[in-house]
Every structure is written in C-alpha cells, then in structure tokens.
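re: ur question from earlier - yeah i can do the single chain one, its not a big deal. heres the input i used so u can compare w yours
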Amino acid sequence: MPDEMSRPLIRGGGSRHLEASMSEAGAPVIGILGTGDFSRSLARRLVASGYQVVVGSRNPKRSAALFPEEAEVTSQMEAASQADLVFVAVFPEHHSTLVELKPALAGKTLVDVSNGVRINRDGPSYAEQLADLFPESSVVKGFNTISAWTLQRGPRDGSRQIFLCSNSSKAKSSVMQLCRRMGFVPVDMGLLSSSLEIENLPLHLFPSWRLPVLCTLSLFIFFYVYNFLRDVLQPYVKAGKSVFYKMPIETVNVTLPSVALVMLSLVYLPGLLAAFLQLLSGTKYNRFPNWLDRWLTVRKQFGLCSFLCAALHAVYSLCLPMRKSARFKLLMAFKQMKEGGAEDLWNDEEVWRMELYLSVGIMALGLLSLLAVTSLPSVANAVNWREFSFIQSTLGYCALSMATLHTLLFGWDRAFDFAQYRFCLPPTFMLVLFLPLVVLLGRLVLLVPCVALRLRQIRRGWEKSRHIRFTLPDDDCRNGLEDVSNV
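and the output i got, formated as tokens:
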C-alpha cells in the first residue's frame, strides 16, 4: 500500500518550481526549514490553501520526492532568501545549525513549531532561545499543538485552534491571517513570554482528570473492600460458607453504583458550598478557597466519571443472569416452586419494589446520558447558555434525585433488619445515601424564596456591607454618576 504521505495533495503540472498560477496573486512565499513528517504535511496544507511554498533541505534531491509537485525543494539558504515567512520545523537542539542563515532571515517572520520531550517549568522556551539566535527576525510561536495528521487531513474535527504568541504584533497578525486561510482558528496568547506555556500544552497528560480519576479509584477501592467484608468475608468467617465467586461480578456490581452516586453528588456539592459562602459573606467579590476553586473547575470530569460507573453498573446488571451461579439459583427456585407451589414465591411487596427500582434506575441512567452528551464541546456549542445551564443544573439535580430514589428503593426496609449489619457494619446503601441527601437538602434550602432572592441579588452585585443606589439624572447633560452614593 503506497504511503499517503508520499502522494501529492494536489496533482497536475510536472514542474517542481513555483508558479504564480498555482496560488493567488500577491500571496506571500512561505518557506519551511526541515523535511520531516510535520514539514511535509504543512507543505501540503499550504499548497492546498493557495500559497507558494519553498522547502529548505540539506539534501534537496533526496527530499524532493516527498513533497507535492507544486512546492519547490531547494537548499536552506535559497529557501530562506526567497520566503517572506519561514516555518522553522527542525528539532530545537538543531536550531544552532541555522545560524548561517541569519543574514537571509533578517527582518522576516520565523514561526517556531518545536516541542520539547518533557515539561519545562523554568524556561527559557525554545521560541525565546530562537529569538536570541535571530535578534533581527520576528519570532512567532505556534502550530506546535496540532499534529502532522491534522495538518494533512485538514481541520475537520476538534483540532481547530492554534495558539500564537509573539513580541511583534505585525508578525503575529500575518501568521493569524495564514491560520484562517488554512481553515484553523488562531488564538492570541500575547507576548513571546507565553511561549513556555504553549510549548508545555502538548506535554500535559489529562491535567484536569487527575483529581476526578483519583477520587473515583479511591471510592471504588473503599466500597469494594467494604462490600467484600460484608458480603464475602463475613459468611466465610461466621458460617464457613465460601462465596468468593461473588468478587468478580456481584461485588463489583454493588460497588459501581455506590461510586457513581457519590461522584454525582460531588458534582453539585461545590456549587452549593460556593452559594452558601456567598450568602455568609454577603458579596460575590470574595475569592473562594483554592481547593474549592479547583473543585469547581473539574465538575465536568467528576460527572463523566459518574456516568462511566453508572453505565458499567447497567452492563454488569444485564450480565447477572448469564452467570452459572445465577442459573443454579434459578433451577433451585424452580424446584422449590414445584414442591411448594408458586404462591410461596410470589411477594407483592418485593415485586413492586423491584419494578420501581428498575424503572427509576433506567430514568436516572437516561438523564445521566443526556448530561454526558451535552458536556461534549460539539453539542454544548449548539445550545445557548440558558439551555446548557437548564440541562446541567435542573436536569442534573433530577438525575441525582432519581439515582438517590433508586438507592432508597434498593435499600427498602433493610436498614431496620439487624441481620444486614454484618460485622456490625451498616449496609452499603446507608453510607452512599448520606452525601446525596445532604446535597438535595442544600438545594432545597437555596430554593426557599427569601434565600433565592438574596443569592440572586448578591450575584448581580449587591453587597451586604455596601449599599449602592443609582438615581436618574436630572437633565440630559449629566451621566448619572454624580448621584452614586454610599459606594
């Protein structure tokens, strides 16, 4: 199978030299120093966008076949001399080899696309080092957060943003114009001092997921050990009954909904804490504690972890009848039915409990699925803020209520059965219900009219210790600021 990277994006014409007919009149000549995968993809995208492209290589004859026919592959010195804007697509440790090009690159814009192999927290960045090597050139940091594959295929998916920074506003504007013409969305990050942050962006590994994942794993381990002690170890210690076969399926299936409900509660708990802090302080201008501020920023990740556990719980529940132990119990129940009659197995209370339990659980999972889908950027961009907040807040609390009711129906009257307190440990659902009930009660308190009105006033700028009154101006010559009192 031929290599896609070796095929030209645009075919036609046998000449390898630049022709004005292949690009728009007056389009700048774009130079690329380097012949790696990123350079090849960048050249194809620039040619497809109507630019004249000249590629600088240490061995032009060997590299010529890898680039589209519309791009000229020549020496680095000739490419630097012809180009108006130059992409430096070589590894940063080789930047020093380009010093001989300094006269040809003087007064031109250099776009540094390099990345490091590890996060650099101290600096200087590679872009700043390049600016020191070429003080007479304008260095722009950019294009390092997108892959060669994205460049080759085009900005069709979510990889549309390109972060840019430079000390030269003119150079940055020209690169931003180039980004738009290629179909990307440029994001201005300010001066070149921001380049260290831009270079570290591709090296982060799910930074906003660390706390939610750690919390999910911790809760899973806690509830799994707790259920193991109650449901597996206690029968073995007390009666010598071995039920260790429950560990892979049943114990996990009881653990997953516990984690899902607690994680869903943790999505809405920080918002309640923030609201009560604002009510206590009487202003919205006080900063939240750092731990609460960080918690508020990862609520989406907490919700998605909750949805994952709930979805796995649904799959595990559907697989319960497939186990050999479940089929054995079913045969034993059928044998008991033949001996004692079906009326001995039918219990109206248990039947109703199970019907309601399953129905409410399905609705809770459906609402959680809606919350998860709406959190996707492509879906969130299709709704306005009021619609988004209604789904994430109102329907989110409905999902929490349904999940809590699902757990209550599962527990039913088992909290009053002494036999359920194995090893003197209460049933798992009693531990799980504490946090969601606190969150739901806190939400009800905020819905009380007097509390809701005061919170709304605070969020619109009212302060308990400072009363601001605005009066209408007496005549058209005044702007009303003179009547502001008690500010």
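Residues 1-22, 475-487 have pLDDT under 50 and may be disordered. not sure if urs matches, ping me
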